[in-house]
Every structure is written in structure tokens, then in C-alpha cells.
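SAMPLE LOG
Freezer: B-3
Tube label: C17
Construct: single chain, 192 aa
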Amino acid sequence: MDVWEYEGDKVKRSTTYLDLAGMLVQLGVMPAPQLPELKPSFELPAPEPTGLAPLEAGTEAMDRWNTHDLAGLAKVMAPGADVFISTLGVPMDRDAFIASQELYFQAFPDIKVVPVRQVDLGGGWVLAEVIYKGTNTGPLFGIPATGKSFAIRAGWIAHYDEGGLETYLHVYLDNLTLLQQLGLAPAGEGRQ
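STRUCTURE (predicted):
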């Protein structure tokens, strides 16, 4: 995901959120992750429209995620939500997304998302730039815990309907940097 900011007709800032591990998997240099069946451990509650404007709906979803309230998070997602998390590399529906977050919360019980900024793009679309932080004290998709902490920038694009329900969520971050911070992949030359 590329974020281009303009001042007049000149580019003021350009930010790219790219999953290098995904690229290495596609090149055959790194094995593809073996994902379990992504099925929630509980029956998801029905969505409950919040009536919030897109920016407020995004903040509400982040707050529910930060308290690890997955039932509450499911309530603010439309049943047919289109979800993609770059580190997992597969499109997901609402059920699979909630199941994947259960696995992340097991791997990182203290994980939080810190918003850097949110931008209302109009038409229900919101761009968010955030920092994920946490400590790996549980297994991560079959990989034993390392006990190491991480902090990684991410960007996502989300869409909210007129009721404030999330209908689209695509999250982009560099899984290779995450794996390096956890000590699961060697750091490249010149990296700290």
C-alpha cells in the first residue's frame, strides 16, 4: 500500500507498507506460512450498527481490538466484510478474521495498536497509520514463543457503511521486519 501526500501539485511525503516476507514466499526463497483452519472458538454475535461516522467507527473498532474484545469487534463488522491481512496473505471473511485475531492475541497477549493518524477519505473510506506493539509469549502459528517484543508500523484502509459497520479492512505491514524483531529471521546488513 502506497500513501502519497501532496502539497499543491508536489509530492510532500510518500509512505509504502510492503510485506517483504510475502514477496520472499512468492519468489520461493521462504516457505509459505501454514495456516490452521481459521474458525472462531465462539459463535460470533450479530452485527450491531453503531451509527458512527467513519473516523469514529474506526476509532471504536481500534478500541475494541485493543481491549481484545473480539465479540465486540465482530459486532462492528458487516457479515460480508472483505478482510485482508498482508502477513497472512489470504483474503478472509468476518469469521476468519476474528479467528486469526484470536491466534494473534494468544501469541501476543499484551498486543496493542497505537494510532498514528486516521484520514477520512470520503465515501465511508478511512486510511489509518498505526504502530503495533507487543511481546511474543505464546506460539505464533506453530512457532514457539521467543519472549521478544516488537513495534512495527502498519497501514490499513477500511470502509464503513452508513450504519458505522466495517465492510472492508485491508491491513499492510512488513512480516519480515516482525520476524526479525522476534529473532525468527536474520536481520539484513545495515539493519539494527
